[in-house]
């Protein structure tokens, strides 16, 4: 496990430096990890929350070097708000995911969308930017959010996975914007790649990417099977499902678990396997 002092610039690869934001929580683990890519000129991935101490830590790590781009994987409030003050301090353009504002503060405070995010350029799937000794290519990975991007660092065979794949927990997929079918398809997309390592926004680097992604796919399929078994037992209310499926869960995470169950149910309904009946669910007739 990586030691994770807040605000300290930690080299995790010759081309990659990590700076941890001071926003630990049950959803962010030790906090959001911002990454600096490059040695002479830099890209900053996921600048993090709008926190003056974190902004100063990023500027200290940048150490006066030119910043080519500020890249955001998605627009949850623990990832993109520092882009604007970092742009003001460095002059770098904000590049990456598309803007997305959704009135969805019910899950958790730090998953609210960043309404002020205003990119100078949106990267399409497969589009690249480059600096001295580094190339970053956008990889569309919707599921956690519809605008989520990962960024592949060609020279290190590394993938910055944002919240699509995390190093400490499974990803929350919360409707209405979170989509389980899209999330699973994005995992399949990662399985077809040959990345050497993942650098997630939360948690440790992942050194066996394909095996890890395969495990996430298996976990989601196991959850799907649990839901279908509960429906066969005529347990169709989401709170009752969560109580059976997530034994010993931190109560602060109950709402998020319910949203992930709902995401599975919506996917199963789209496939014709279940149907809603009021506030409850049942197997399709």
Automatic annotation (TrEMBL):
<dbReference type="InterPro" id="IPR041516">
    <property type="entry name" value="LACTB2_WH"/>
</dbReference>
<dbReference type="InterPro" id="IPR050662">
    <property type="entry name" value="Sec-metab_biosynth-thioest"/>
</dbReference>
<dbReference type="InterPro" id="IPR001279">
    <property type="entry name" value="Metallo-B-lactamas"/>
</dbReference>
<dbReference type="InterPro" id="IPR036388">
    <property type="entry name" value="WH-like_DNA-bd_sf"/>
</dbReference>
<feature type="domain" description="Metallo-beta-lactamase">
    <location>
        <begin position="31"/>
        <end position="202"/>
    </location>
</feature>
<dbReference type="InterPro" id="IPR036866">
    <property type="entry name" value="RibonucZ/Hydroxyglut_hydro"/>
</dbReference>
<protein>
    <submittedName>
        <fullName>MBL fold metallo-hydrolase</fullName>
    </submittedName>
</protein>
<dbReference type="Pfam" id="PF17778">
    <property type="entry name" value="WHD_BLACT"/>
</dbReference>
<dbReference type="Pfam" id="PF00753">
    <property type="entry name" value="Lactamase_B"/>
</dbReference>
């Amino acid at each position: 496990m990586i030691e994770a002092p807040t605000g300290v610039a930690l080299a995790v690869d010759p081309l990659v430096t990590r700076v941890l934001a001071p926003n630990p929580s049950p959803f962010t683990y030790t906090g959001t990890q911002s990454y600096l890519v490059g040695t002479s000129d830099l890209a900053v991935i996921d600048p993090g929350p709008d926190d003056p101490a974190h902004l100063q830590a990023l500027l200290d790590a940048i150490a006066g070097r030119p910043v080519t781009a500020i890249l955001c994987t998605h627009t949850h409030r623990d990832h993109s708000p520092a882009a604007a003050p970092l742009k003001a301090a460095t002059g770098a353009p904000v590049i990456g995911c598309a803007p997305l504002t959704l009135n969805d503060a019910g899950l958790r405070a730090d998953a609210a969308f960043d309404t002020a995010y205003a990119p100078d350029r949106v990267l399409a799937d497969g589009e690249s930017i480059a600096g001295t000794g580094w190339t970053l290519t956008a990889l569309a990975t919707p599921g956690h959010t519809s605008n989520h991007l990962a960024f592949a660092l060609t020279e290190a065979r590394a993938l910055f996975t944002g919240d699509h794949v995390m190093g400490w927990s499974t990803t929350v997929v919360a409707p209405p914007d979170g989509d389980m079918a899209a999330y699973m398809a994005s995992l399949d997309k990662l399985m077809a790649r040959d990345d050497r390592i993942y650098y997630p926004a939360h948690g440790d680097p992942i050194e066996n990417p394909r095996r890890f992604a395969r495990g996430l796919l298996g976990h989601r399929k196991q959850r799907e099977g649990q839901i279908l078994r509960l429906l066969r037992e005529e347990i169709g209310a989401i709170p009752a499902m969560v109580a059976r499926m997530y034994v010993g869960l931190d109560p602060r995470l109950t709402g998020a678990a319910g949203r992930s169950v709902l995401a599975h149910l919506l996917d199963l309904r789209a496939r014709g396997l279940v149907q809603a009946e009021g506030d409850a669910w049942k197997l399709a007739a």
